[in-house]
User: Fold these one by one.
Assistant:
Number 1:
Amino acid sequence: MKKTIITISRQFGSGGRTVGHLIAEKLGIPFYDKELVEQIALESGFAPKFVEENGEHSPGRSILSYAFASTGVPGVMNGLSTADFLWSIQCSAILQLADKGPCVIVGRNADYILKDREDVLHIFVYADTEFRADRIVRLYGESEKSPVARLQEKDKRRSVNYQHYTGRTWGAPKNYDICINTGVIGIEEAADIVVDIVNRSK
Amino acid sequence: MKKTIITISRQFGSGGRTVGHLIAEKLGIPFYDKELVEQIALESGFAPKFVEENGEHSPGRSILSYAFASTGVPGVMNGLSTADFLWSIQCSAILQLADKGPCVIVGRNADYILKDREDVLHIFVYADTEFRADRIVRLYGESEKSPVARLQEKDKRRSVNYQHYTGRTWGAPKNYDICINTGVIGIEEAADIVVDIVNRSK
């Protein structure tokens, strides 16, 4: 089946977001990352910043239920944690985005949420630690933590979140249609590979 | 660096061997699979059939040491199991093959053995169970065991062997430069993707 929707899962610092952006640009289709967060926020009444900070982190941070009372969102008073609530509205938003038509969706466990659609191509982008550490320092600057510790922390969070909500192992090839090491293949080249696959699919 | 040597690791039934063969054909370079087994056999004095049966299986099958006495191969009397002996001569053969020049090597843990060469591209080929089960029945016919049981047994052996000799996890993306799901991408298309990567590498 023709693949018109692309999900990108990626290790922190691998350039997966850039790969996704390039694919969307080359194919002339919408790209959802912060835009998606904004849509989630609009639906939930949460501030975009809050969603961005919690959307891909490990679950378990509970926020007192009165925090939800002001949102007016139905269901949040029924014992749902913040993380579970975010997961629910993420699912719904991603399913709706996919229904709207061709697009690229980065992160947010979209590969799992759209696993039953045959028109979706699932990509995992990764790279070795040295490549990623060098890249995050170049892009985001130094911080108190070492780049390697930052990578480990972020990947761990994504992995725990993914496992918790999907029951699957983050980064296991069977969850994806192609996994690309950008440290070896290159970021631009990774995007070209995916665009070729999409264009050749029938 | 220009990638001139390609290693293919693959799930049983995924078509990885065919992908490797197509790549070699398209690039006009040697393809090693049974040929490699034969070379190993020539070096060891083992019968090709024996090597083929044991080369990728899980270690631990011990054969009485007198079985080696007739081979005249140095070292086999020093407590090496058959599997360990096969591993040693596989390493040596694969290192020599890579030194000879551009080629495609399928299986035999070649990705690990050649991990320190920068001119090598490492591929993992996989597919979902249904695609593989259907393919092995078409290619190899029915047998007493169900196709799914045959897949599980063969993959388990490859996985245990790989873990034992490399200390790494078989099929974990970080061991490869690209992982391709032939059930979705297609066998011919997988070969084209790899040929493009090789041709573009500098």
Number 2:
Amino acid sequence: MRSVAILGIGQTKIDEHWDRSLRDLAGEAILAALRDAGRDSAEALFVGNMMSGIVNDQNNLAALIADWSGLGFDNAPWPGRQGRQPGHGVEAVKIEAACGSGGAAFRAGLMAVASGEMESALVVGAEKMTDRGPHEVTAALATAADADYETEAGVSFVGLNALIMRRYMHEYGWKHADFAPFSINAHANAMHNPYARLHQKITVEDFEKSHMVATPINLLDASPIGDGAAAALLVPAETLSRASRIVISGSASATDTLAVHDRPEVLFLTAAYKSAQAAYKMAGVTPKEIDVFELHDAFSIMSALSLEACGFAERGQGPRLGLDNEINPNGRVPICTRGGLKARGHPVGATGVYQIVEVVQQLRGECGETQVDGARIGMTQNIGGSGATIVTHVLTSDVKR
Amino acid sequence: MRSVAILGIGQTKIDEHWDRSLRDLAGEAILAALRDAGRDSAEALFVGNMMSGIVNDQNNLAALIADWSGLGFDNAPWPGRQGRQPGHGVEAVKIEAACGSGGAAFRAGLMAVASGEMESALVVGAEKMTDRGPHEVTAALATAADADYETEAGVSFVGLNALIMRRYMHEYGWKHADFAPFSINAHANAMHNPYARLHQKITVEDFEKSHMVATPINLLDASPIGDGAAAALLVPAETLSRASRIVISGSASATDTLAVHDRPEVLFLTAAYKSAQAAYKMAGVTPKEIDVFELHDAFSIMSALSLEACGFAERGQGPRLGLDNEINPNGRVPICTRGGLKARGHPVGATGVYQIVEVVQQLRGECGETQVDGARIGMTQNIGGSGATIVTHVLTSDVKR
């Protein structure tokens, strides 16, 4: 595979965008990424999205977004028509892997450029969830679980994560407040991210007093849904000068059983371990060299499990990193530096691309108050389902700062 | 890109499989393709599916199918566990491009192997549509159209195609019976395909007397939905001996506006033209050299438009090929040799992979009564929406027969 770099990034604020359509949000992020890259278009569009078919009555989403965003020009006049036809025509496809859709779409774009099949690819993660009521969105999120063997039994997606968290607390002796630092760090960092959904500092007391959702997960353990889109433009690294590029040095994806009860170990994210190991190997790095890690904190328990599976903490010791102040931007393992899923927000199929955009911002040194000093190697990990599909990327900066 | 070959194929009968689940159908096709290839597993799974989120309450489908099919082995024991863990773990992702999902998934698998990222990839197209009532499936199919500007106005997917067909008949002076040969050929060929949904010969009289669906499209202009799955195993061509391989010599995808009313020309499939031209160029062939063409006859009008856009007929003259007996297995442009969407059936997201499987059968000389004599170069074209996403592949056989 030839090496691939990220030339441009774009994102929308995550919010309840009741006056915007899904295509419109995606278009805003795409045009921002193109503007950032100084480009007009790209040869293909890869869309990460989970639930447009369910909550927006829209499939065939990638063609729709490509057209709306004016991607591509028809340079081959067809019989009966002459000249350059602007505004449509690029290859476009949607990738779905539940909440891991964004990361999976990014990996698909990477392979398309790495293969030599194309010289540029846009990846956009886009989701619009707030036009429907809470029960409809809860039902849509539950499609990430096993419909026949989990959802059919009445368990919601947060319910599944609650079972995992309860078992984890029982097994390793943690109390609920021990998870507070994950949410506190995320909320604190989001204060400095204008694209974040929540701008609200929280304390341990807030965390403990918050409304219960599914014991032991309360509102401040859980990430908010939202509407938003994030985009990145990929080009061959060889076309850029070494002094100004951010390269995708590691990329891997792995799966686990969809149903949590089918796993021999419910407290270890096997697919996170596998994909992280493969990405480390490809990038030639170890966890110690990762300067910033945008992980998938859909629920606080997932932060702990992701840190453990990726080699940043011993098994059962994830919460220790938070309690020891190691996860903030000045710590040993900075996570959720732009707010994470918890406070930046979690527009499910878009999240994986937001993570990429945020790591690029860190490697460019654009993060102000939450900048990780001298960040040069960053990592993202995007999870679909309760650990069923996990996509890990390592980005390396050649930028001299 | 390195050259990629198809080593194994598998498929289920298309039917109303009320006693089978979606994962079960996909697993049957995958295991058949692995058996055909003499392999145990593959490094990744690419799933083509349109509507599992809507009609099966199931997203994250690729991880589910990978697990159910027992794909992958965990050769990297994780902390606390030892040895080879069978049965799950391969990278898996779902590709959605409405009824073009299967072809798009096949192209994603191609790029993954061509890039050098992996040495094998399974592609499966799978759809299970008959557990829901007709109005629910009609609504699900309508998500292939523009939700805000077409579906919102009350037009169904067949309604959109009816508008196109009516305009075509008006513009070029064809009468409805002139489209009969497309359906008659498809039904005649399906008689010899045990995997086809419909085994029922039809006549011009049947065609003309059939129940109206949306004027001028009647029941025998339209393909039936169904439950089914088809799979193919892709490996680098260099790993196989020249004398026994079928190579993907051309591959391309293009898009058009989702909304039909946004197109400057509604009677020309621009994306079909673009993707066919690109695939021809990549394969180094012209339409004259194509021995067999599995096209996307979701409605008879689409057969005509596809033949014209791909260079087999002049504009407005597609039906002539049928009337002149050129489209049957002994004709100049054999199409739908295993029954096409019309009679083999159209399990929407699976169809594109069925087309690939059927062309491989032709190039292997396995088609008995409907075998195209000496077929060496075959083509598939898979369409998502009313021409919005179009994926074209050219397969070339090195097999000596």
